[in-house]
Structure formats: structure tokens, C-alpha cells
Amino acid sequence: MKKRILSLLMAVCLMTTLVSVCSVSASAAEGDVYVYAYNARAKAGETVEIPFYINSEEEFACLTFTPDFDFTALELVNVECGIPGGSFIYNENPTNPKFIWYHPQNMAVGQEPVFTLTFVVKEGAREGKYPVTLLFNENDICDENGSRIPLQVEAGEITIFRYLLADVNNDLSVDSADVVKLARYLVYLETEINTYGADVNKDSNVDGRDLIKLARHMAGAEMIEGAGY
Ligand SMILES: [Ca+2]
Ligand SMILES: [Ca+2]
Fold this sequence. Notes:
Elements: H1 2-27, E1 33-37, E2 40-42, E3 47-54, E4 59-68, E5 74-81, E6 87-90, E7 99-108, E8 115-121, E9 128-135, E10 151-154, E11 156-160, H2 176-186, H3 195-198, H4 208-218
Parallel strand pairs: 1-10, 2-11
Antiparallel strand pairs: 1-3, 3-8, 4-7, 4-9, 5-8, 6-7, 9-11
Helix pairs in contact: 2-4
The chain binds calcium ion (2 copies).
One calcium ion (CA) is lined by residues 199, 201, 203, 205-207, 209-210.
């Protein structure tokens, strides 16, 4: 019995907390609900995910978005919904993508990514920064009463690159493994290296001078400008 009373008390506390959070968000200025994305890096041919989150405790009944990005450089291959409940439909149309999530009652969307967009970077895509955002019609973002919920979308970004300078083993990081790999390559113990990344002094050759420069970079004795992380 005590347990039941305790859980009832906890439920009341939780509701009080939720109500106060709701009243804060209801009195907040328009546009306080943000949909925002994480950034990512990828090379041509690679698959990359951009997760979108919602920053607030706001509850929704309908969310509808049209992904917008550079179709010449990126191909949208999947959209996943991370909201635990409701229905999700993605039209799987690579040239005119659109998706909708809905639920008959208001739902909090949670801390996980609400939607995750998966792209393949097209072969031949130029290096650079490519914004990825979600467009919407304000009538398609609403609660269970059909009231619009104003929100703002902050675009994510995919940085397309060909190689990281000083990344000899092509694992997208620069560390001591790259030094060892380059040294072994120079004595024919390795054949598969990223020769663009290995040419750290950018003289179009891969040799002992690159090795020393890279080793000094890792030892903190010299900085290779533009070297990857
Ligand atoms: Ca590396
Ligand atoms: Ca070189």
C-alpha cells in the first residue's frame, strides 16, 4: 500500500513537473522549438547519416518534412524515424522525397534523433560543404487539436572531401598508426596507402621527407598545416 501511495505521489510530482515545463514552453516566444541536425564528413561513394533532433519538450501529433539538399552531390537512400510510437511513412522517392509522422494524441518525441537521413555521396561529387535541411508547410506541423506548432529548422551539413592530409591509412584520423604505415610503405612492407594523404609536404612524391614531417607532427615538434584530425 505504501508503495502505491509513493508511486501515486511520484506520478503527481512528475505531472506537476511536466505541467510547469509545458507552461514555460507555451509562454515562450514563437520559434523556440528547433529542429537541428548534426554535421558529418564523407568521401565520394561513402554512406553518411545526418540525424535530426528536436530541442524542446513540446508534444506533437503530426510532423511532415521535405528533405532539401544538393541532389547533384548527394543521394538520399533512407529516412528512419526514431519517435517511439505513432506511424511513419516515407515516400522513398529519391527525387521528390517527403515523409510524415503522426499519432492520434499528442506525443513527446524524446531525446533520440527524431529522423535520421542516410545519404550516399555521389561519385564525382565536388569537395565542399553541403547543407541538409528539412522544409515544411506550417499546416503540417501540429498538435492533436490541429493547432500549428511553430518551429525552426537549423540545417545540418555534410562536408565532402577526397582525403585527409597526413591520413596515410585512410581511416579518417591522423595518429601514430599513420607514421608506422608510412615507414613500412617506404620499405615495401605495405603497399596500400592513401598516397594523397601521405604526401604531407605536397611535392607530389611520397618519401622519407614526408615521414619525418609526419613523425614530427605527431611528436608535437611541427604542425602540418591542413592535416586532418
Ligand atoms: Ca589514419
Ligand atoms: Ca612528399
